[in-house]
Amino acid sequence: MTLSRSPSPRPGGGWSSPALNAAADAGSPGTFSPNEISWGSVKAISDETDGYPSFASRNTGFFSRQRLKISTRLSTLWRGSSHEYSEKDDHGPKWRHTDCFRRNMCSLPGISTRRGRFRLLVRLLILWIVYLLFLSSIVPIYRRSPVGGGQKFVIILGSNVEGGVMELKGAREWAIERNSIWNKKNYALKWGYQLELANLLAKKRYSHEWRESWEKGDIIREAMLKYPHAEWFWWLDLNTWIMEYDTSLQQHIFNNLESKVYRDITAYNPMNITHPLPEFWLDGLGRSTEGDGNPDSLNMLLSQDCAGFNLGSFFIRRSLWADRLLDAWWDPVMYEQMHMEWAHKEQDAFEYIYQSQPWVRSGVGFLPQRSINAFPPGACGDQENPNVHYQQNARDFVVNMAGCMFGRDCWSEIYYYRELSKWLSRPLWIRFKESVIDAYDGLRGKIKKT
C-alpha cells in the first residue's frame, strides 16, 4: 500500500520544516533545528489562520433591537382619547384605536368574561337539576333532624270518633276523616313533624264505661312514650283544618313565644275566674298574675272561645308539670263523679283543675283564639266576632268547625275551607297568570265573576 505521506521518524510526530520554525524566522534563514517544531503546534497555528471570525452585531441588546417598537407603543400611552388624530406617514392609519397595547390584549377580558358566564350557566343548571331531583327529599330530612327542629313536635289527631258504634258512619263522615288526615299529614311532612293518629273507637277498654270518652290524657301519655325526643305535643280534633301550609309552628308561635302568649286570664275571662287566688298561704308565684314571667316555664298553651277553655286545639309540653297534670286529669274522681254534669268531659275537668289548683296556673299560657283555633261563622253565636271567627285577610292559621254536628253541615264547612286554603296557597305563577287575565278582561270591559 502506497502512503501519501511517509511516516515521521520523530517520536512526537510531524516533520521538521524551516518555514514553520519561529526561531528560524527570527534568526538566520539558512539555519534551523528539527527538534524545535512539532505537529501539534503546526495544527494549532493552522486552525487559527484558517477559521472564520464570529459575527458580531452592533444591536446585540433587547432594548437596542426593540427601540423602535417601544417608542411607538409609548407614544400611545399618553393620548387622552381612544381616537386621536395623527399623521398617516408617522403612525400608519389616520385614526388609531389606542385603548390597549395590542388587540389580543384587549380581547382577553372578553374571553374570560364569556368563559365565566358559561361556567355560571353550567352551575345554575346543575343546581336546578339538584333542586328538581333532591329538594323534595333533602329538605324534609333536614327539618326532621335535631338541627331542623321538626323532631321536637308531634301532632296528635283524634280520628275515627266512635268508629260507627253509636251511629252509622256515612259517606260524609268518611270524607271528613279522609280529608282531615290528608291535611295534617301533608303539613307534618312538609315541616318534618311527627303525626300520631289516635283511634277514638268506642269499645270497652277501661274499668268504667265513662272513661273511654275521656281519652285525651291517656293518648297524650302514650304519645310521650312513643316519641321520646319530642318536646311539644299538639292535639287537634278531627273537625279542624290547617289553612297555612307555608307557616311552621316555630315561625307562628315558638320562635317568639313570650310575645305571643298572655298568662293573665283577666285579659279575656268569659268564665269570670278569680285570678290570682286570694288564699293567704300562697307564695309569691301563686299570687302572681303573670307567673314567673319566664317563657321556658310555660307547659301548656290553649285558647278561649266565647264560653271558656277550648281543647279542640292545644299544646302540652313534656315536663314534670305535665306529668302531674295528667295524673290529676286522668284521676277516677273526675270521670266517675262528674261525668253527668261535665258535658265537655276533659275540657270541663281542666277548667275545674285550673280554678282550684294554684300550681297549674303558673304553667298555663293563653293564645288568641284565631291563632290556633279560629271558628267558622255560626259557631259561638250567629253574629260575626272578629276575635273569634276566621278572618281571611289576616290569614288565620287553623279553623276549628266546633259544634258543626249540632245544626250545621260539617262536610260542607270542611270542603269550603279546604278549597279556600288551596286558593290562598296557589303558586306565584298562577297568581301572575290570573292578574294578566284580569287585566286583559278589564281592557275588554268584561265583568269579573265572583
UniProtKB/TrEMBL annotation:
Pfam family, one: Glyco_transf_34
InterPro entries per UniProt: Glyco_trans_34 (IPR008630), Nucleotide-diphossugar_trans (IPR029044)
GO molecular function, one term: glycosyltransferase activity
This protein's UniProt keywords: Glycosyltransferase, Membrane, Transferase, Transmembrane, Transmembrane helix
Residue span of region Disordered: 1-35
Cellular component terms per the entry's GO annotation: Golgi membrane
Top-level taxon of the source organism: Eukaryota
Transmembrane portions of the chain: 120-142
Gene3D superfamilies assigned: Spore Coat Polysaccharide Biosynthesis Protein SpsA, Chain A
Any single biological process term in GO: protein N-linked glycosylation
Family under the similarity heading: Belongs to the glycosyltransferase 34 family.
Protein name as it appears in the record: Alpha-1,6-mannosyltransferase subunit
